[in-house]
Structures are given as C-alpha cells and as structure tokens.
Design goal:
Elements (H helix, E strand, L loop, with lengths): L7 E7 L6 H11 L4 E6 L6 H5 L18 E5 L5 H10 L5 E5 L3 E5 L2 H7 L5 E10 L2 E2 L14 E2 L2 E2 L4 E2 L5 E5 H6 L10 H12 L4 E12 L11
Parallel strand pairs: 1-2, 1-4, 2-3, 6-12
Antiparallel strand pairs: 4-11, 5-12, 6-7, 6-11, 8-12, 9-10
C-alpha cells in the first residue's frame, strides 16, 4: 500500500452494529495511515460504541501503533441517512472524506487515485461484494451495479435513474458542505443526491473499482431488502 501525506477522515454511521463495527474500523486502519474516524451514533443500545472506543488513540502513549487513531463520537437524534452523513462530514477535520457502512469491511483502496479522481468528480463510489453469512452471493438486483470497470455517471436501467451508493464513497468535505444530502428522506438519499448532482448541476460522479468492500448482511440493511 502506498502511503500519502494528505490526511483522511472516515465517517461511519452506527446503529447497533456490534457484530461488524470492530471489523470495519480495523479494516480502515489496515488500509489508511492514521485516519480521523467520526462515528455518528443513532442511539445504539448494544456494544457498538464500547467496541469503537477500543481503537481510540491515547495521546499520552506511543502513537506509532497503527491499530489506534483519533476518533470522534457524534450523537444524532431524529435520524435520517442524509442527516447522519451531513453531520458526520461537518465534524470532520480533514479535506478528504471516506464514508463507509459500519457493516462493510474495506478490502482495497488506492487513495492516490481517488484523490486525483476528485479533481473532475464531485464524488467517487466503490465496488461492493455482498456477503451473506460468510458466503459471497450472486450480484443480482442492486449488487449488479458493482462491476469491474469504471463508469462515469452510472445510469441504472433497473431503477431508471442515475445510480450512486454511499456505503463506500469518497468526497471532498466542501462538496458535501455545498451539496448536502436531503435530510428528509428515509432511504435512497444517495440516488436522489446523484440525480441532483448529475442531472441538475451537470457535474460528475465516478464509479471506480479502485476501492472495494465486503458488504455483510444485516437484517435492517436497506441494501439487502431485495437480494
């Protein structure tokens, strides 16, 4: 992995994700050098936050251990997916922001390429591999969008609109500040956001397999409603 000097913030939305949150954070630390991690917690009642806290870097100790990093916990009430991302981004200290689902495990990332891509794109979203109880499943329905080739302004024939998925996505902070997600929507806020960016603003969004996650099944995950 090539290290870069430009610091990265990572936004993770959390609601009772104790099964996967530790795997998610560890995978980020394995791939990115000392990122700032912002946890946006939607009133979790399990051990999600306790597990997240295991990764907090203690400034009084040796900070060379890559398995610890700076973390920030943000509580959210009146949750919506868009409000959670907007709030997480607002609390980020760095220019470049990775948004990743709490039940995703980062398997591959090329930050140099992603940062370069943002020169001509408002956002980049990455490849997702669906995992059901440890088994990779066939890429049908929504999963069929995540192929092996880069696509500019992906149009979904399945949904009859431009496609974008923020479970693995990369932005400049200023892009979300300027073009925030709709906080009133209870789902598919990413698709509506893409419609606005591409159709109304005439700007670009790139799908790139240069970063990739395993997206693990959760009963309440919207992506898994029709797998």
């Amino acid at each position: 992995m090539v290290k870069i000097n430009r610091k990265i913030s990572v936004v993770i939305r959390v609601k009772n994700e104790e099964r996967w949150i530790g795997h998610c954070i560890q995978s980020v630390l394995d791939m990115i050098d000392k990122p700032e991690i912002v946890i946006v917690d939607n009133n979790s009642t399990d051990d999600s936050i306790k597990i997240s806290n295991l990764f907090i870097e203690d400034p009084a100790l040796d900070n060379k251990n890559k398995n610890y990093t700076k973390m920030r916990l943000v509580k959210i009430d009146n949750y919506s997916p868009g409000r959670a991302i907007n709030l997480g981004v607002k609390n980020c200290s760095n220019q470049y922001i990775l948004v990743i689902s709490a039940h995703c495990v980062l398997k591959k990332i090329n930050l140099n390429k992603l940062i370069d891509y943002l020169e001509n794109n408002v956002a980049v979203f990455g490849k997702q591999i669906p995992i059901l109880n440890g088994k990779k499943i066939n890429k049908r329905y929504i999963w069929s969008h995540f192929g092996d080739k880069s696509i500019n302004n992906m149009f979904s024939k399945l949904e009859n609109r431009f496609f974008f998925h923020n479970a693995l996505s990369f932005f400049k902070k200023q892009s979300i500040t300027k073009y925030p997600f709709d906080e009133k929507l209870v789902g598919k806020e990413d698709r509506y956001w893409a419609q606005h960016i591409i159709k109304n603003l005439k700007k670009n969004i790139l799908y790139s397999p240069d970063f990739e996650v395993e997206h693990h099944y959760t009963p309440d995950g919207n992506t898994w409603k029709s797998f």
